[in-house]
Amino acid sequence: MEKSTAPIGLRLTNQLTNRFFELKFFSVANFGREKMGQSIFTDTSISRNHCMIKLVKNDYWVIDVGSTFGTFVESDGEEKECKSLVQLQNGSILKLAKVPFLVEYIY
Question: 91 versus 44: which is more confidently predicted?
Answer without folding.
Answer: 91
